[in-house]
Structure formats: structure tokens, C-alpha cells
Amino acid sequence: MEDAPERIPVLALWSAPRSRSTAFARMMAERNDHLVVHEPFSQVVDFGEAKVGDRVAHTEQEVLDALRAVAAGRPVFFKDTMDFHYPALLADRAFLRAATHTFIIRHPSEAIASHFALNPDLGRDEIGFAWLHEVFDAVRSATGGTPTVIDSDDLLDRPRDTVRAYCAAVGIPFVPEALSWRPGMRPEWQATGRWHRSTSRTAGFERKAGDAAAVVEANPVLRGYLDYHLPYYERLRAAAIRP
Question: How many Å apart are CA 148 and CA 167, to the nearest integer?
């Protein structure tokens, strides 16, 4: 049996792309009780480096090391998206056990339509739900418990109750004042600003009108992507907390 690891004050939020994780991270920044790190794993893949506090990481392993090191000085919250596969994360069982890993989901038809609008050449795997579920399973295997999952529809429909339930699940105070913020593009979003433009215009958790299902249904390729990812979403949805 593995020894119980020393917990580290790292709170992770994993997400398929276009699942409202940036809005959740914006709320976490408003709390001012965590260092908020924006997508360090995907930035290493996209740009070859990522800033983690006062450190710069150039590999996935360096991201893991930097998160541990920075968390020695203050609590860290990071969010990342699963449009890439992260083998070093999956292999680092100690990190999977020692940090607190949480997940946010959105119905794949909505996530796919939103992703397709920004990246018409997207491939099946970068939609991310299969890789997201892989991390969920790895955390569950490493910890012996079910990680916290929230559905972003609950976040939009009942933000106060959903965030309160999330905070209770991960053991941090509920800060109702953080549910609203000043609109604007944050500095850490600049490198991938077009992906965060809609969130930059918000002042809280807001639902926007649209017919994602029709967009996906009209496109045979996107329908195939939906068929592939929907079972992974449904498994994660079954584990979601109910605010």
C-alpha cells in the first residue's frame, strides 16, 4: 500500500475546451486567496513555455515541479484544458494524490459548437472529453475517492449554490463577493486572447443565447465527434455534485 502523501495547497480545475473554465478561474482570481495560474500545461505545448508564479516552465514535468515549488509559499489554483494529452501528469501519481483535482463539464454539443466557431479545423481528440475522463480516472485511482465535478450549466443557472457546494467539497471558504467582477481582458489571457474574448466581456456567470445542437446536427463530422465524446461526458456528469 502506498503511504499517504503530504497534501500540497494546489487546487486544479480540469476542463474540455470551451467549457466555461476561464469564467470559473476569473471568479477564483477575484477571491484573492490563491495564486491563479492560467493553463500552464497547454501553454507549454502551444508556446514552449508557461509562467507559474515567478518560475518559467518549458516542459510538462517542469510545470509539475513549479506548481509544487510555488505552492510551498502560497495556495495555488490553476485551470487547464484537455485539448492536449499530458502523459507526465498521468505518470506523476504523487501529484495526482497530493493536489486537489476538480473538473468542470459542459454538454459536448455546446462545447463542440463553440470550439468549431474558433477553430474550424479542430480534430476529434482535441475536443477533450475523452482525455478529461482519463485524468478523472487517474485521480480516482490514485486517491481512492471520487474527484469533485461541477456542471457549468449549474454554474450559470445557480451560481451561488454551485460555487458554495464546490467550496465545501474542496475545503475553501465560500466568498460570495467573488461571483461578480469587472469586465476586461486579464494579462494572463493575452497569449490566447481570442479564446477568452467572450469571458472578458462578462461581469459574472452569464448564459448566452445560441443553438449549439443545430450546429452540430447539421455537420456530419461534428456529429461523429459528439457520438465519440458523449459517453465520457455522461460518466463525468453522473459524478457531478448537485448544488
Answer: 10
Positions of E strands within 92-193: 100-105, 148-151
Give the tens place of pLDDT for each residue, 131-183: 999 999 999 999 999 999 999 999 999 999 999 999 999 999 999 999 998 88
Q: Tell me the C-alpha distance between 36 and 19, whole Å.
A: 18
Q: How many CA atoms lie within 13 A of 91 on its CB side?
A: 7
Residues 6+ apart with CB under 8 A from 27: 163, 178, 179, 181, 205
Choose among 5, 9, 20, 7: nearest CA to 172. 9
Environment class of residue 87 by beta-carbon count within 10 Å: exposed (0-12), middle (13-18) or buried (19+)? exposed
pTM of the model: 0.93
Q: Computed from CA positions of residues 214, 219, 222, 223, in that sequence, does the dihedral angle turn out positive or negative?
A: positive
State the angle between helix axes of 129-143 and 220-239 in degrees (0 to 180), rounded to the nearest 10: 20
Q: Answer for the pair 97, 5: CB distance below 8 angstroms, yes or no.
A: yes
